[in-house]
Amino acid sequence: MEEQTRRSLIERAESKHRLAREELAALLADEGAEEEMAAAADRTRRAYVGDEVHLRGLIEFSSYCKQNCLYCGLRRDNGKAERFRLSRAEIVALAEKAKAAGYPTVVMQSGEDAWFTAERLAEIVREVKRLGLTLTLSVGERTRDEYRLLREAGADRFLLRIETTDRALYERLDPGMSFENRLRCLADLKALGYEVGTGCLVGLPGQTVDSLAADILFFQSIDADMVGIGPLVPNGDTPLGGEPPGDMRLVRRVVSAIRLLLPEANIPATTAMETLQPGARELMLRSGANVVMPNVTEGEARRKYALYPGKACVADTPDHCRACMEGRIRAMGRTVGKGAGGRRRA
Ligand code: 5AD
Ligand code: SF4
Ligand code: FES
Asked: What Cα–Cα distance (Å) separates residue 49 from each residue in 43, 45, 267?
């Protein structure tokens, strides 16, 4: 792209937070735009959400999944996946520890495990909420009534990535799942008053920059409160095991573009990024991101929850990661968020 065009697009994104799909796609395609986009995104991050980095304690509580996503190690056809399911008491104990370690928010994540009916989950939600924590659920697709029950039990936020807005690609990679139902879930969650997080994968076979541009405009159109991006990390025990990993430079442009177009959103520097490129969390925190989700799961479960291989921090303890992240954040001249770090509105 010509330097003049590039500059004017980035300036407009920074001042108006709007770009057309073709403009966005052109920036995403432009390797030379990376540093300028990141600098603009970093200014926008500071202006809208400040220097605090919010930590969310991630509890991975079940590796059972009835779905069969082609990229994911927890897919039901992966006979090599080690399955585990934490008990209610174990989950609540992890939440208590997360609270004691200073996390104001915990995220409870699992595969789509039917054992955890909405009623069972709601009981756990109520117990965790009694600890005074802000609670995010990431348990996949459910009916509106189930989402309502969980919301009434006290869940504050919900994460459900759209993965890709390319409908055909979505239905090819997530066999048996419907794009329509995914949209329905996100709409129900919003309507029920959850803070809603979504996001996509970068590096899916057949995905284009045009489709990533559409993903970002989708996040904007649903007014996403949180947007999590992950590069594809090929998992040898899945059908996408032979694919190349997601391009981290493209991931960085996507993160920066999301900050420019959704200036108030919470944007995590994700574990998948760190897995492909050590140091990526800091890089992304300087390129638009403002959230990190350290794993607070302990013991065997930490290893067995294997969406992809080589997961960063898999051999570390929750206490070690908490201290490590705090040190890294301070070394960057940023601070660890004190409150629940919810969506801010200008
Ligand atoms: N590489 C990167 N991210 C993955 N996810 C699942 N499998 C992989 C993989 N191989 C992501 C999906 C899902 C989230 C919980 O993990 O985007 O929404
Ligand atoms: Fe299950 Fe989620 Fe993995 Fe798909 S991405 S197989 S729904 S855990
Ligand atoms: Fe896990 Fe640094 S955050 S070791």
From this structure: 10, 6, 10
Instruction: Give the Å distances, CA to CA, from 258 to 64, 218, 329.
Output: 32, 11, 21
280 lines ligand 3 (CB under 6 A): no
Q: Which ligand is nearest to the CA of 310?
A: 1
What's the pTM? 0.97
Give the residue extent of every domain in the chain: 3-332
Residue 146: CB within 6 Å of ligand 3?
no
Each residue's pLDDT tens digit, 62-84: 999 999 999 999 999 999 999 99
Q: Which residues contact 35 (CB under 8 A, 6 or more apart)?
A: none
- Average pLDDT over all residues of the chain: 97
- Does domain 3-332 bear CATH number 3.30.230.80? no
Q: How far is the CA of 81 from the centre of ligand 3 (A)?
A: 24
74 lines ligand 2 (CB under 6 A): yes
